[in-house]
Structure formats: structure tokens, C-alpha cells
Write a structure and sequence with these properties.
Blueprint: H1 7-12, E1 19-23, H2 30-43, E2 48-51, H3 71-81, E3 85-89, H4 92-100, E4 105-108, H5 110-113, H6 116-126, E5 133-136, H7 143-155, E6 161-165, H8 182-191, E7 196-199, H9 201-205, H10 211-220, E8 225-229, H11 247-256, H12 267-307, H13 315-331, H14 336-360, H15 364-367
Parallel strand pairs: 1-2, 1-8, 2-3, 3-4, 4-5, 5-6, 6-7, 7-8
Bound molecules: phosphoenolpyruvate (PEP) and manganese (II) ion (MN).
Phosphoenolpyruvate binds at residues 25, 52, 56, 88, 109-111, 136, 166, 203.
Length: 368
């Protein structure tokens, strides 16, 4: 049984609450690494120091990391500042080099998680080691691929595993660098309830100004930690400059963060929550009964259209449904976007069902 947690190392820091991973996007120079470590050590809350040594950059001729020469700098962070270090690996060779320098944990980056061959190679190289491994979501919004990577690493016998939610590539214009698509992270937390999921607001937002609110959102959802890029002089960073913050700013964000409990032992709270939830349970049953009744009517409509050789899709009917239901729902104080989504699902299901009816048996007229 895999222990999907980083609890062993978290306890070492002897601090309850979420895990904090901080450090520069890239290990640029020995001075920059040590200066960041100094700033973070004084915060006294950092569980892991992060730094990229091999940097996956979108285009060549940008800084692609210092490679192995940066590992002794990071070892100094571990030895002199008592901060365990975490490094991104993208191959079995990277893992071997990290192990050689005694690096305490590794993470698999978003561009590596997408490739099952590479993940499997790393998993094979991890066999027999006891290094914790964190797995970032793949760059594309594919939950199965993310879970697949976690399973491959778990399959190698790695005992301490966590996931990192760093957002997803999207062609839409959003305020984010990588769209968070919180629903995917929520689905992962539902499918693997014992897995710790760490949020990376730096890569999600791509901008300093949104790190605090995105970190808070992750905490509100019950995520188990944060990975935040930190640099002594963020504007001069060699990679991801606009999203890095100073250790000082991290201290402010961390102290203002509202941490919520996953559950409560208070019997009054539990009784009241149970009472409200059982009312919701009854309403859900009523909703489903209503939908089932609607489907029975759709069956009659489908049969009738088929027998009269009428198309399933009737654009004017859809427009009318959208308009009337949206107005009705708005009067009930429901969000327009939410109504739109429900109507879309209802309509899609209606089309699917009527299509099935169309081909289920010959119509009365065809049979004549
Ligand atoms: C990073 O953490 O600096 C990084 C490159 O991450 P990602 O794999 O999320 O792009
Ligand atoms: Mn980065």
C-alpha cells in the first residue's frame, strides 16, 4: 500500500498545517542560491527549498539551467541552512545526479508528466531508493495522464508521493499563465483522497500580484501545501521573473494566509452539518426525480418526431428554452453561467436520447 504523503518530512519541520516549498525558479549562481536560502531560513516555515537545475524552456537560446554544477550549491543549502532541497528531474540521469549529491526530494515537471515513456524510465530508476517524489500535472488538462504518472511512480515502490497542481495550457485568453482548472485538481483529490496535493500558484498565475489570492484559494479547497517561486531580486531572475517574489513578500503572504481545517471534532458542528446535508440529499432526490420525469416526456417527443420525420434538433426551441430558463433562474438568484451549463447538459442528453430513439426501432410510418 502506497503512503501518498509527505508527512514524514513535514513532521521533521515540526509544524502543523500545509507544506511550504519555496525557492528560485532556477539555481542561477551560488550567491543567488545561498542568499535565497538565507531569506527563507529566517521565515522559519519553509519545509523544502526548491530550485530548477535543468530548465525546460519553450524555445532554445533562453537560459536552460546550470545543470550538475548547481548541485553542490544546493547541497550547501541543505548542509548550512538545514533546508531539504527539491529539484526538478526530467530523466533517469537527472535523478542519478541528484542522488549523487544527496538532494532530499525531486519533482517531475509538467512537460515530463505528459510522456509515459519518460515517466516509466524515471520510475524504473527510482526502484530501491527512498527519495520523495512530487508529480506536477501534465501541461495539457488530462487527469488520467496525471494519475497514470502517479501510478507509475507508486508502482516503483516510492513511499512518499505527492502531486503538484501547476495549471494547464489553454489557448483561451485568461488572466492566468496556466489555467488552474480547479475542477481537475478536485477530481484528483476525490479519486486519491490520501494523496497530498500541493498548489503552485507561481506557474498558475505567472504574475506576482495574483500569488496571494491563488494561494488562499488552494487553502480554501483543502490543498495540502504550496510551492512558491522565491528570488532575492525577482525582476532580475534569469527565468520566470514576473512570477517570483522575495522571501520578504513570501513571509507576508504566508502570515496572511487563512488556513482552514479539513474536519472538526465539535459535535455541535457535526450535527448541524449533518442536518443541512440531509436536506440537500432530499432536494437532490427531487431534482433527479424531476429530471427522470423530463426524460420520459423527451421519450414521447422523440417518438413523435421520428414518426413524423422531423429533425431532432430544433434551434428555435433551444433558444426559447435558454431565454425563458435563464430569466426564471435569474429571478431565483442563480448565476447565469451556471444555468447555461445545466441547460447545455440537459439539452445534450436530450439530443443523445432522441438519437437513440430514432434508430431504436422502425417508426410506425416506415413500417407501413
Ligand atoms: C518550474 O517549477 O520551474 C517549472 C519549470 O515547472 P513546470 O513543470 O510546472 O513548468
Ligand atoms: Mn519556473
Amino acid at each position: 500500500m502506497v503512503n501518498y504523503s509527505l508527512s514524514k518530512l513535514k513532521n521533521k519541520a515540526n509544524r502543523p498545517g500545509p507544506l511550504l516549498i519555496a525557492g528560485p525558479c532556477s539555481a542561477e549562481t551560488e550567491d543567488q542560491v545561498l542568499l535565497t536560502a538565507q531569506g527563507l531560513q529566517s521565515l522559519g516555515q519553509v519545509d523544502y527549498f526548491r530550485a530548477g537545475v535543468w530548465k525546460p524552456r519553450t524555445r532554445p537560446n533562453s537560459f536552460e539551467g546550470n545543470g550538475e554544477i548547481a548541485l553542490p550549491w544546493l547541497k550547501r543549502v541543505q548542509d548550512e541552512f538545514n533546508l531539504p532541497v527539491m529539484v526538478e528531474i526530467a530523466s533517469a540521469d537527472h535523478l542519478e545526479r541528484c542522488l549523487k549529491y544527496g538532494i532530499k526530494a525531486v519533482w517531475i515537471g509538467a512537460r515530463t508528466t505528459v510522456n509515459p515513456f519518460t515517466v516509466q524510465e524515471i520510475a524504473d530508476a527510482l526502484k530501491g531508493t527512498d527519495i520523495p517524489v512530487l508529480i506536477k500535472n501534465p501541461i495539457n488538462p488530462d487527469l488520467k495522464l496525471w494519475i497514470g504518472a502517479i501510478e507509475r511512480i507508486a508502482g516503483a515502490g516510492v513511499k512518499e508521493i505527492a502531486a503538484i497542481h501547476r495549471g494547464f495550457q489553454s489557448y483561451d485568453n485568461t488572466v492566468y499563465r496556466y489555467a488552474p482548472k480547479w475542477d481537475i485538481a478536485i477530481e484528483l483529490m476525490t479519486e486519491m483522497p490520501d494523496l497530498q496535493v500541493i498548489c503552485d500558484p507561481s506557474h498558475i498565475t505567472g504574475k506576482r500580484s495574483m500569488i496571494a489570492e491563488t494561494s488562499q484559494k488552494a487553502m480554501d479547497l483543502g490543498m495540502h501545501g504550496l510551492m512558491i517561486e522565491t528570488h532575492p531580486d525577482p525582476d532580475k531572475a534569469w527565468s520566470d521573473a514576473s512570477q517570483q517574489i522575495t522571501p520578504q513578500r513570501l513571509t507576508e503572504i504566508w502570515s496572511e494566509l487563512r488556513i482552514r481545517n479539513h474536519s472538526s471534532d465539535d459535535p455541535v458542528f457535526s450535527t448541524e452539518l449533518d442536518r443541512l446535508r440531509s436536506m440537500i440529499d432530499s432536494i437532490d432526490e427531487e431534482l433527479l426525480e424531476g429530471i427522470a420525469k423530463r426524460m420520459r416526456l423527451i421519450e414521447r417527443v422523440g417518438n413523435y418526431k421520428r414518426d413524423n420525420n422531423i429533425t431532432i434538433f430544433q434551434p428555435q426551441r433551444l433558444s426559447e428554452i435558454r431565454e425563458t430558463r435563464t430569466n426564471f433562474g435569474k429571478k431565483l438568484k442563480l448565476e447565469e453561467e451556471f444555468i447555461r451549463k445545466i441547460l447545455k447538459d440537459l439539452h445534450d442528453e436530450s439530443i443523445r436520447f432522441q438519437t437513440e430513439i430514432l434508430y431504436s426501432s422502425k417508426s410506425a410510418k416506415q413500417a407501413e
